[in-house]
Specification:
Layout: H1 2-5, H2 15-25, H3 29-52, E1 57-60, E2 63-66, H4 69-101
Antiparallel strand pairs: 1-2
Helix pairs in contact: 3-4
């Protein structure tokens, strides 16, 4: 049908474009491995904190807070920072790949 009206078929469905997309979306295995190793270490550290810190409360901003939640919050911030850095690196690599193809 597209041949009759003179329009080109969807360029995103051409086999060579699909192969390019597969190669460019493949994560960097070394960076990916580092990320998942860090996530595993954070999980182990959080479990150790959860099971070793005793019961107790401290006052934070005028409210009583369980003492084990404070280091878990800090670890959570490291996890968030790692996730944001990973996504930023993916975006940076994607834009570099696109700039290299031009």
């Amino acid at each position: 049908m597209h041949e009759l009206d003179g329009r080109e078929p969807n360029p995103g469905l051409r086999p060579e474009r699909v192969q390019e997309r597969k190669l460019s979306s493949r994560p960097d295995s070394k960076q990916d491995q580092k990320f998942w190793t860090a996530m595993g270490a954070f999980c182990i550290l959080a479990a150790v904190i959860w099971f070793t810190l005793g019961e107790g409360t401290v006052f934070a901003f005028g409210r009583p807070v369980e003492i084990k939640l404070i280091p878990l919050f800090v670890i959570g911030m490291f996890v968030l920072r790692s996730m944001v850095a990973r996504e930023a690196d993916k975006i940076r690599r994607r834009s570099e790949d696109e700039a290299g193809k031009l």
